[in-house]
Amino acid sequence: MTPVHIPMGDSMHPRTRRLVRHVVVSCAALALLAGCGDGSADEAGPLSARQAEAVLPDAKAAPGWKVALEPVAYPQNKARELGVARCHEGPEECSKPHVTGVSAMAGGRGEPQLDFVLMAYEDAEAAQASYEPVWKAWGGRSVEPRELDLGTIGDESDAVGGSSPSLRDGAKTIVVQVRVGSVIMVTMGEAGSGSELPNTLEQFATVFAERAEQAQEGKTPSATLEDVA
Predict the structure, then answer these.
(1) Contact at 8 Å (CB) between 187 and 201?
(2) CB contact at 8 A, 144 and 6
(3) What is the dihedral of CA 102, 108, 112, 113, to 10 degrees?
(4) Are the beta carbons of 201 and 159 closer than 8 angstroms?
(5) Which of 101, 209, 107 is nearest to 150 (CA)?
(6) pTM of structure
(7) In angstroms, rounded to a whole number, what is the distance separating the alpha carbons of residues 127 and 184?
(8) CB under 8 Å to 34, separation ≥6 — which residues?
(9) Which of 16-20, 112-116, 213-217 has the highest average model confidence (pLDDT)?
């Protein structure tokens, strides 16, 4: 697998860019011609806990990877009660998702350890309004974070890399946040300096986003790493 070159800026601000795909013409104007919006992620209703659980990366989504935590998702009150909702962004912001879910993966020896968090909101507008405060909290989790460019993923995306907060000798961490419609997803990876961490995180974040889009279109999430390799 060919490593992806990741340009790393000198800025310490954990914000890279907002990649927003807006339709600039009215759906009402196109409705009679093209059925504008049919099945789109932006117009889908909120995901159920069961749908959110199916979106989270698992063994089928990542062939060859070991599942460290099987996907689980709960309505927000239950998720907070069980500690599934990691409220780094604060109690008020943490109460806004409709559903929160998590899963985790581990590669072989020396491979990255990966954590996934999914926050499903009532609609795309609610997720978009929460994107910035959620990123401010999660993006600052690495030590001395630097902005990364992992390309266009989902409707909005950001990524930072830095030293791991675990303080393991030489360990690096990358945090990627992506919004697709009414869903915000956080993908975190930690690995030693010899690992292709940026390339791995880009692929997992892309698969995560594609699975979220499939679920919001009413489909069973089926995207895998093999689809984006």
Answers:
(1) yes
(2) no
(3) 30
(4) yes
(5) 209
(6) 0.79
(7) 7
(8) none
(9) 213-217
* Of residues 119, 116, 137, 141, the one with CA closest to residue 128: 119
Burial class (CB in 10 A: 0-12, 13-18, 19+), 117: buried
pLDDT score at 43: 60
Sheet arrangement for strand 172-180: 66-75, 99-106, 113-120, 183-191, 172-180, 156-163, 143-147
Q: How far apart are the first and last CA of the chain?
A: 8
Q: Rounded CA gap, 42 and 50, in Å?
A: 19
Six-digit token string for 56: 């989270």
pLDDT digits 0-9 by tens, 127-185: 999 999 999 888 877 777 789 999 899 999 999 998 777 656 677 899 999 999 999 99
What are 19-44's pLDDT values in tens digits? 333 322 222 322 222 333 344 555 65
